[in-house]
From TrEMBL, chain A:
<dbReference type="InterPro" id="IPR001750">
    <property type="entry name" value="ND/Mrp_TM"/>
</dbReference>
<dbReference type="GO" id="GO:0042773">
    <property type="term" value="P:ATP synthesis coupled electron transport"/>
</dbReference>
<keyword id="KW-1133">Transmembrane helix</keyword>
<dbReference type="Pfam" id="PF00361">
    <property type="entry name" value="Proton_antipo_M"/>
</dbReference>
<feature type="transmembrane region" description="Helical">
    <location>
        <begin position="255"/>
        <end position="277"/>
    </location>
</feature>
<feature type="transmembrane region" description="Helical">
    <location>
        <begin position="417"/>
        <end position="437"/>
    </location>
</feature>
<dbReference type="GO" id="GO:0008137">
    <property type="term" value="F:NADH dehydrogenase (ubiquinone) activity"/>
</dbReference>
Automatic annotation (TrEMBL), chain B:
<feature type="domain" description="Na+/H+ antiporter MnhB subunit-related protein">
    <location>
        <begin position="106"/>
        <end position="226"/>
    </location>
</feature>
<feature type="transmembrane region" description="Helical">
    <location>
        <begin position="135"/>
        <end position="154"/>
    </location>
</feature>
<feature type="transmembrane region" description="Helical">
    <location>
        <begin position="72"/>
        <end position="88"/>
    </location>
</feature>
<dbReference type="GO" id="GO:0005886">
    <property type="term" value="C:plasma membrane"/>
</dbReference>
<dbReference type="InterPro" id="IPR007182">
    <property type="entry name" value="MnhB"/>
</dbReference>
<comment type="similarity">
    <text>Belongs to the CPA3 antiporters (TC 2.A.63) subunit B family.</text>
</comment>
<dbReference type="Pfam" id="PF04039">
    <property type="entry name" value="MnhB"/>
</dbReference>
TrEMBL record, chain C:
<dbReference type="InterPro" id="IPR039428">
    <property type="entry name" value="NUOK/Mnh_C1-like"/>
</dbReference>
<protein>
    <submittedName>
        <fullName>Na+/H+ antiporter subunit C</fullName>
    </submittedName>
</protein>
<feature type="transmembrane region" description="Helical">
    <location>
        <begin position="30"/>
        <end position="52"/>
    </location>
</feature>
<keyword id="KW-0812">Transmembrane</keyword>
<feature type="transmembrane region" description="Helical">
    <location>
        <begin position="6"/>
        <end position="23"/>
    </location>
</feature>
<dbReference type="Pfam" id="PF00420">
    <property type="entry name" value="Oxidored_q2"/>
</dbReference>
<feature type="transmembrane region" description="Helical">
    <location>
        <begin position="72"/>
        <end position="96"/>
    </location>
</feature>
Length: 610, 252, 115
């Protein structure tokens, strides 16, 4: 089987697995359903890894026209899947993270719907198929369809614990905001179809290139609308509001997938659409796209870091750290060059491992103690040394401790983006890593003064401006865990090891560097997809460990540890800091507010591009 | 955020988006124009494959992969609804009481049921020829069964609607689409290729795999919609929550 | 007035967003989302229209005898409608659970997720 032929199977295998699990789920015992789910997910992972390994070079682009509808003279009617290294690598990352999440969820959910043992693994497999399809497709409308598939399944997974008031509210907000974003994308697709008469990324790009010169209003509108939906998924400010609400309430294995890969797929979509469609002479001029991505990236990074530091609800804390890191990814993309993109790819790979591992550790706390509140859990984690160690290492890795892949990715972005970006990266890593370390020091080491009152009896008033993490329902079978199952510790260990490997394997760096060269090669993509022409992009220096990057990483880690220690020693405030009040009040959980910000965000994006 | 502030943000954002969309509208080609390159190619390709209904050719042949994703969205939404509207620990089922139905309603609904069912099946079967297909026909079929709820009562509907069977059939429809797509691989063609003989133009057996995929979608949509409605009807009719539970308890 | 059909799509999107932002009832909000989505149907179908064109179905007309409208946007709209219906169903099931757990469907009274 050629590499190209495996591409549709990477999507089809998990879909088939979901159908089997739903069909047979009524008769299967639970463990059999879970094993079956893992097997199908792993089969897709094997296919994706095989396809990556069997590719002749890092710059190859295996192209598969579904249904055999090959274009003639650049014009066709079919849908194409393109398995370049970055798309295929993301599909592999997704397909590896899914079995990890399923393995972690081994002891989860005491109540699958009656006689529906296969529901949860089936939903996760559909989620996987949606993400893989989105990563591999070379057709804009098809990308929208898979974007919606991953969305629909993600809303259901987020609201999985329907007995939790917060879970259903968060899932609903997630669903409404993301659907609205998707419809904006579809409006943009409609505009592009009207202008070019095409739906394939390469075809649209080629049609736009046929009319060089500055973009007119239609092309700008189309760009803004298409990218809006993708940036909603990527949780860029001011489209980010849904993320904390959804990630704080989703079951932990789902959080691992949402924060680890789904959000990053929004960025991937943005990058893919920009380079294939709008990077040519008929598209959006590079300075305009640069300005838009950069401003949104800086806003996102700063706001995410500030909000992250304010949280005591551990899942919300991690969610806002994802927002902050998304900002850094955007800053890396804004370089609009292979170096920046290579850094982002390495960063995303390592971040997926670190963030999923951190969520896994918080899940252990939730299931052991029925709380994810930093203050309430003070010192309780001492009995979980292994989880504590993993959480601490995760915090250090998030802060950018070399040789973790996060540090490498960040160092490469710093080098590509230039001076002030270094300061931003160091600041954001120090604050987000510091927040995680602060929580770890309080919970697992019991450092600092004990919060007053034995776990405040009174619930905060309904109008409190803060979501604490007290009194959450454990997600595992049979209520709180008496001992932590090995699977829940092995999974984060493996994930952190993976994040470490991203920083250490030299072959990965060179491979990512060449893949980024190919990804940013607009003309090469068009030629390969439409005419089957293989073209080697001009090589650029691959990502590497620079001494300055290592030093900045060490500085960020040290600052994170210092921030954490300082914060822990100060007296504990039960009330959030007043200074951040206006900012916190914006995060109201109100769907109307989020929609208003959505419109304002579209306007901002348009103003930045014009 | 106060209501006033939200309205301000909304006004500014809405105005900006309005300008953006208006600019786009004036940049679009004139309404009703003759330039539709992809559409012309699609018509040509559909005729070459003996499929009279071009839209079905686009959906089930030229862009069959879109339809796979679309079908999976429906499949996922049905599964999601099964999960989200499950009977939780604090809820119990109470069989609904029979309710008297006005005789004219009963007569009309009982008469309409078989007719509607037949129309639904016809629409599915003729998807490659005339407007319609698996999605439209599937919804009509699912609706026809629910006429029994209107004509008699909920228990009568439940007798002809064993939800478990429909769930299995829903999954079978999804699997069938994938298997037809994969069968093309065995013949050496690409995934979802139209590998069957194209048949005679404008007859039931035309279009190659289009009728097969259409049927798979029809089964999936009909059964999926039945399961979906069953979950909502259960919530409305059968599932009762204990009054002392939710609000307070769930919120603590 | 050849832009009017396009402007109607833009209007639908904006009015749907206005409804979403000011809604006092989540069921109404899900309805408003459906209005936003109908903007996409209208836009796609107007883009694909050809003056004097008929449906691209050749069971009762000879190919080439009459102009037909763009079949691709019709297929896209069909896909879009199915997506819209399923998303609406899923969101409504979440609204049912919100109503049960919070005893309200007024977004102003939902106060669980803040900060």
């Amino acid at each position: 089987m050629t590499v190209a032929q495996t591409l549709p199977l990477i999507v089809a295998v998990p879909l088939f697995g979901a159908a089997v699990l739903v069909g047979a789920g009524r008769r299967l015992p639970r463990y059999a359903a879970e094993v079956l789910g893992c097997l199908f997910a792993a089969a897709a992972a094997t296919l994706a890894l095989y396809a990556s390994a069997a590719m002749p070079s890092s710059t190859a682009r295996p192209v598969e026209w579904l249904g055999g509808w090959r274009p003639h003279g650049g014009a066709g009617v079919g849908i194409v899947l393109v398995g370049d290294r970055i798309g295929l690598g993301l599909a592999a990352l997704v397909s590896l993270l899914v079995p990890a999440a399923l393995a972690y969820a081994w002891r989860y959910f005491d109540e699958p719907p009656r006689r529906h043992a296969g529901s949860f693994p089936a939903l996760v497999l559909l989620f996987q198929a949606g993400m893989c399809g989105f990563a591999l497709t070379g057709d804009l409308f098809n990308a929208f369809v898979f974007f919606e598939l991953m969305g629909v399944v993600a809303y259901a997974l987020t609201g999985y614990r329907v007995e939790e008031a917060r879970a259903v509210q968060g899932a609903l907000v997630f669903g409404i905001v993301n659907s609205l974003g998707a419809y904006a994308t579809l409006l943009g697709i409609g505009l592009l179809y009207a202008r070019t008469g095409e739906l394939g990324l390469a075809q649209i790009g080629a049609a736009l290139d046929a009319h060089p010169g500055g973009p007119d209003g239609l092309v700008i509108s189309a760009f803004v609308l298409v990218v809006t939906g993708l940036l909603v998924k990527a949780a860029a400010v001011p489209f980010h509001f849904w993320l904390a609400d959804a990630h704080a309430v989703a079951p932990t294995p789902v959080c691992m997938l949402l924060s680890g890969v789904m959000v990053e797929l929004g960025l991937y979509g943005t990058a893919r659409v920009y380079w294939t469609v709008f990077a040519g002479p008929g598209g959006i001029p590079a300075p305009d796209a640069h300005r838009a991505l950069l401003v949104l990236g800086v806003l996102t990074a700063v706001l995410g870091a500030v909000m992250c530091w304010q949280q005591r609800h551990l899942k919300r804390l991690l969610a806002y750290s994802t927002v902050a890191h998304t900002g850094l990814f955007l800053v890396g993309l804004a370089v609009l060059a292979p170096q920046g993109l290579g850094g982002v790819v390495l960063y995303v790979l390592a971040h997926a491992g670190v963030k999923a591992a951190l969520f896994a550790c918080v899940g252990i706390l939730l299931d052991r103690f029925g709380s994810v509140d930093e203050l309430q859990l003070h010192g309780k984690g001492r009995e979980l040394p292994w989880a504590g160690a993993l959480f601490g290492i995760g915090g250090l890795a998030l802060a950018g401790l070399p040789p973790f892949g996060t540090a490498l990715g960040k160092a490469v972005i710093e080098e590509a983006a230039g001076g002030w970006a270094t300061a931003l990266c160091v600041l954001v890593s120090a604050v987000t890593g510091g927040a995680v370390l602060r929580a770890g020091a309080r919970v697992f080491l019991g450092l600092g003064p004990v919060p007053e009152g034995p776990a405040r009896e009174s619930r905060p008033a309904a109008d409190a401006e803060e979501t604490t993490g007290e009194a959450e329902e454990p997600e595992t079978r049979g209520g709180r865990l008496s001992r932590v199952p090995d699977s829940m510790l092995v999974v984060p260990t493996v994930l952190l090891a993976g994040a470490l490997a991203v920083g250490l394997v030299p072959a990965l760096r060179t491979g990512v560097g060449r893949a980024a060269d190919a990804f940013t090669d607009h003309a090469g993509y068009l030629g390969a997809v439409l005419y089957g022409r293989a073209a080697e992009p001009a090589p650029t220096p691959p990502p590497h460990w620079a001494l300055s990057g290592v030093l900045w990483g060490l500085l960020a880690t040290a600052s994170a540890a210092a921030c954490a220690l300082l914060a822990v020693r100060r007296p504990v405030r039960q009330e959030p800091a007043r200074r951040a009040d206006p900012l916190r009040r914006l995060h109201s959980g109100h769907v109307g507010d989020y929609v208003a910000w959505f419109l304002a965000g579209v306007t901002l994006l348009a103003a930045l591009v014009v | 955020m106060s209501r006033r502030l939200r309205l301000w943000v909304l006004a500014v954002g809405g105005l900006g988006v309005a300008v953006l969309l208006l600019v786009a509208c004036f940049g679009l080609p004139a309404f009703g124009g003759t330039w539709h390159p992809y559409g012309d190619r699609a018509v040509h390709a559909a005729l070459a494959r003996h499929t009279a209904n071009t839209i079905s050719s686009v959906n089930f042949d030229q862009r069959a992969f879109d339809t796979l994703g679309e079908e999976s969205i429906l499949f996922g939404a049905v599964l999601g609804t099964v999960v989200l509207l499950r009977q939780t620990r604090d809820e119990e089922r109470q069989p609904p009481e029979p309710v008297p139905v006005a005789p004219p309603v009963r007569r009309y609904a009982l008469l309409a049921l078989p007719v509607t069912l037949l129309i639904g099946l016809y629409v599915i079967a003729h998807g490659q020829l005339s407007p319609g297909g698996g999605f439209q026909g599937g919804v009509v079929v699912a609706t026809s069964l629910h006429l029994l709820y209107i004509a008699v009562d909920y228990r009568a509907l439940e007798r002809i609607r064993p939800v478990g069977t429909y769930e299995v059939a829903d999954a079978a429809g999804e699997a069938a689409y994938l298997l037809v797509g994969a069968a093309a691989l065995l013949t050496g063609a690409a995934f979802l290729a139209n590998f069957l003989p194209y048949g005679t133009f404008n007859t039931l057996s035309s279009g190659g795999t289009v009728p097969l995929l259409n049927a798979a979608i029809g089964v999936e949509v009909a059964c999926g919609v039945v399961v979906l409605l069953a979950r909502f009807l259960d919530q409305a009719v059968e599932i009762e929550s204990d009054d002392r539970d939710d609000g307070a308890e769930a919120r603590t | 007035m050849s832009v009017l059909p396009y402007v109607s799509a833009a209007w639908l999107f904006l009015i749907g967003c206005y409804g979403l932002a000011t809604s006092r009832n989540l069921i109404h909000a899900v309805g408003c989302l459906a209005v936003c989505q109908s903007a996409t149907y209208v836009l796609l179908l107007t883009i694909g229209y050809r003056a004097g064109g008929t449906a691209p179905v050749f069971s009762d007309i000879a190919p080439g005898s009459r102009p037909v409208v763009d079949p691709v946007v019709q297929a896209l709209t069909l896909t879009d409608i199915v997506i819209g219906a399923t998303v609406t169903a899923l969101l409504l099931s979440l609204v049912i659970q919100v109503a049960k757990r919070h005893r309200t469907v007024d977004p102003d009274e939902l106060s669980e997720l803040r900060g």
